[in-house]
Design goal:
alpha/beta, TIM Barrel, Cyclin A, domain 1, 3 domains, eight-stranded parallel beta barrel, globular, binds cobalt (II) ion
Length: about 475
């Protein structure tokens, strides 16, 4: 008997995928208690793009959101997504910042941290896994799934084995583009389950219309947990619907034992939340079935990025050329998986190659750093010819990139001290300095208005 467990993604990946990460804490809190009643394995509710989006678009403190959720969600573990040494940003941070971020995340309410590295370079997860364990939380190490000549089952087994040896409490297969087909999933899960002894979880996206079938085959092969989203925020570029998976498995040996009536009440609530965000917004681009993703392997978010970059250059007519250039750049660079931050980097390089009409005539600093080894080890070696075109005779490092970074926390604390209200502010600033300052200033102004409205006893004068 292997009861299947469910991670609900509605508070993180689902709205990141369908609503541009705009769900507010006020929209989450009224339903949080009911979500806590369901009996999910975990609620993914923090990290990924939500941290940045909270401050940048919603004038919210992400730490405050976490504390508010934790107050209501008492039984179900709260899960977050962390980009290893990139934390929730787009570059490598020194170990002291990574460790402090993990400690504060756990202190404020995170129970499970899903950690990944865009290159599956296990050294980039070391510090985060160690800190998670030290903080007393569950460290889940995620293998990024992609398709390339070097990304075969042996590669994934090797990565999973290293994670287990590093002390990970569970492993996740992270299929961020929704390209894992049902039969490949079956073979991959079978192989992983016979190699590792810690639990295995599967995370996929419905983009190509396959993920529910992929989950079923993975379940038959022995996966322990799958990620789903409550139906109003499922499908399309999001996860398979929670209710579907629960209904499919009912009265089988895999029965999730979750209550469909309760899920239906939750779905009713999120229908309203969804409509708050979709007025006048066409979701059809995100909701269709897109099997081109299997060919180009370009995740949805990256496509919209490419389009906006081309528009800026008045070169939208070169869109198809860029689509074809992406796999070439990826091959030149040793087949990095197209996940943050590699997806943005590879996409930008492809646009530059097409617009200049010459390969690697202009190369962004990030791509140079990548070729120098500063993001970790490329999955396949980069040829001497390509390396010379990009960095000339400059050295390539082979050690763990963060070994070269000196501790920074104290400098950062000094830099932002005029805004300091809580220790967590130092970390918000460390990751997104400009966005954080803007938010800190907003917070200060708001505080002032609240104080003065109390004095005046007239809230009409002070718009919220
Ligand atoms: Co995802």
């Amino acid at each position: 008997m292997s009861k299947i467990k469910i991670t609900e993604t509605v508070l993180r990946d689902a709205h990141q995928s369908l609503l541009a990460t705009r769900m507010t804490t006020d929209e989450m809190l009224p339903i949080a208690e009911k979500l806590d009643e369901v009996g999910y394995y975990s609620l993914e509710a923090w990290g990924g793009a939500t941290f940045d989006a909270c401050m940048r678009f919603l004038d919210e403190d992400p730490w405050e959101r976490l504390r508010a959720l934790k107050k209501v969600i008492k039984k179900t573990p709260i899960q977050m997504l962390l980009r290893g040494q990139n934390i929730l940003g787009y570059k490598h941070y020194p170990d002291d910042v990574v460790t402090e971020f993990v400690m504060k995340s756990v202190e404020n309410g995170v129970d499970i941290i899903r950690i990944f590295d865009a290159l599956n370079d296990v050294r980039n997860l070391e510090t985060a896994i160690k800190a998670t364990k030290k903080a007393g939380a569950h460290a889940q190490a995620a293998i990024v799934y992609t398709i390339s000549p070097v990304h075969n089952i042996e590669h994934y087994l090797k990565v999973a084995k290293s994670f287990q040896d590093m002390g990970a409490d569970s492993i996740c297969i992270k299929d961020m583009s929704g390209i894992l087909t049902p039969y490949t999933a079956y073979d991959l899960v079978k192989a992983l389950k016979s190699t590792i002894h810690i639990p295995l979880q599967l995370h996929s996206h419905y983009t190509a219309g396959m993920a529910a079938m992929t989950y079923l085959k993975a379940i038959e092969a022995g996966v322990d947990v799958v990620d789903t989203a409550i139906s109003p925020l499922a499908l399309g570029t999001s996860q398979p619907a929670t209710e579907t998976i629960v209904a499919v498995l009912q009265n089988t040996e895999y029965d999730t034992e979750l209550d469909l009536r309760l899920l239906s009440e939750i779905a009713d609530y999120f229908k309203k939340v969804k409509s708050n965000h979709t007025k006048g917004n066409d979701l059809s681009l995100l909701m269709g079935v897109d099997t081109d993703v299997l060919h180009y392997q370009i995740p949805g978010g990256m496509l919209s990025n490419l389009i906006s970059q081309l528009k800026q250059q008045n070169a939208l007519y070169k869109y198809n050329e860029v689509l074809k250039e992406v796999p070439c750049v990826r091959e030149d660079l040793g087949y990095p998986p197209l996940v943050t931050p590699m997806s943005q980097m590879v996409g930008t390089q492809a646009v530059l190659n097409v617009i200049t009409g010459e390969k690697y005539k202009i190369v962004p600093k990030e791509i140079k750093d990548y070729v120098k080894g500063l993001y970790g080890k490329p999955p396949a070696p980069i040829s001497d010819k390509i390396r010379k075109m990009i960095i000339g005779d400059e050295d390539v490092i082979i050690e763990r990139p963060a070994n070269l970074l000196t501790p920074q926390l104290e400098n950062i604390r000094n830099e932002m001290k005029e805004y300091y209200e809580q220790e967590e502010d130092v970390l918000s600033y460390a990751l997104f300095p400009q966005v954080a300052i803007k938010f800190f200033e907003y917070r200060r102004a708001k505080k002032y208005k609240i104080d003065s409205s109390l004095v005046n006893m007239d809230d009409e004068t002070y718009p919220v």
